[in-house]
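task queued by scheduler; priority normal; single chain, no ligands, no partner chains; default sampling; output format set to structure tokens
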Amino acid sequence: MNVLNLTSKESSPPFALQVEALEERGIECTTVSVPGSVTANTGRSIVDYLRFHPAVLRESFGSYDLVHANYGLTAPFALAQPNLPVVLSLWGTDLDGELGWLSRLCSNHCDATIVMSEAMKRELGRDCYVIPHGVDFDLFKPRPQTTAIDRLGWNPNAKHVLFPYKPEREVKNYPRAERIVNAVRTDVPEPIHLQTARDVPHSQMPLYMNAADCLLLTSDREGSPNVVKEAMACNLPVVSLDVGDVRERLEGVTPSEVCRNEVELRLALASILNRGDRSNGRKRADGISKERMAERIHGVYRDVLDGRGRDRGGPAVGKRREPQSRQ
């Protein structure tokens, strides 16, 4: 099977892991990415997307079985090519953000749609496949906390709360995390350090998660945040607002808490820091391995090529080329 991937987030670790896992199953993946660059405060321009269209159109005449649009903003360009069936993956902010209407519209015309959580499926309001991004369990696994703290040079006599993003990412709401940690200082006898993941390579995130005492998620919105699943794989307790599929993911994980407001965040964080235990997250992480993710996405591809995906993802638009092969 030969798949053409479209993405505006080629550097995203979840996307890279998805491609790696699919290729391990023998699926050939070629990626066309939206040109231009993205910073914490700026996105790609209209000109970048106009340059994207002819690149997608040219590539669609290659010997591919289908095109997989990863993230909603790539969907119009996937649908604009006349040759291949289209699978669309929505990640979260592309559905509940300001351009969510575009993702919904495009989903109606794709051969299959994949979302990250049951909550996203309800928000989309149509039948679709629910397949969250997977986790590399060989990379994210429990290691001795004292060893991780020593390698990072953190204070071994303090409590460390991990905010797993750059503070500049507004949707992740770092100021809220600061407020919660500052409030908890009076509830915990040890010093508390709020650690961020600024410029931390993804390969080093397991070290941070094993050194930390708790992961704190204060985002305004999420789809299926991989940091929560990665924390589970490292047995790192999680305190999070009730966003995306976090409540679903953390069901049965202890100690961890899903909260409705800042008062609950403070109480939960203080309780976990005072308790000082690791979680049972890895034991509760069934179904979120990268291998399981790839298996399920492969199943969607087969459904589309066998003509079954249209019942879930909506009617195809335009004339689609007969696939070159069916694996």
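post-processing summary
- The longest helix spans residues 290-305.
- Residues 159 and 192 are 5 Å apart (CA to CA).
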